[in-house]
Amino acid sequence: MHWWMVKAKLHRARVTECDLDYAGSISIDSDILAAAQIFPYEYVQVTNYANATLWRTYVIPAPSGSGTVGLNGPPARLFRPGDDVVVLSFALCTASELATLRPRVVFLRHEERLPNRVAEVRVDRIPLPAAWPSG
């Protein structure tokens, strides 16, 4: 059996740009991706706090230190610069992998003219029941 688990979360990332004419994806500052251990072209889910829009797409790295979180292509109609979003990446895990999974939650801070700076990274442990099946 396999379980879909959250591998990483960007908590309250702030959208900095939207480009309807781009082919698609979400652009995220490379420093933020490194902190979350989200890889280029990884499949992610983006949820907008302003309107509850949920979008699934892939990640492309933006320049390091830019603070960029940009929605490209069709989601540019559903997200706006200044919107706060949650970005989730997932892993498909076996029972044995659950014991070693350490989801990363990246909290972002926002300063005037400097959005999306890594404020804190938490690495969580999945609390498995004592009778959890192995293998």
What is the CA–CA distance across the termini? Answer: 10 Å
CATH architecture: Beta Barrel
How much beta, percentage-wise? over 45%
Query: What is the radius of gyration?
Result: 16 Å
Please trace the helix and strand order, writing H or E for each element.
EEEHEEEEHEE
Helix content: under 10%
The top-level CATH class is Mainly Beta
Tally of alpha and pi helices: 2
Task: Describe this entry's structure for a reader.
The model has no long low-confidence stretch (mean pLDDT 91). Helix content is 8%, strand content 50%. The chain is globular. Strand 4 and strand 5 form a beta hairpin. The chain has a nine-stranded mixed sheet. By secondary structure, the chain is mostly beta strands. It has one domain: Barwin-like endoglucanases.
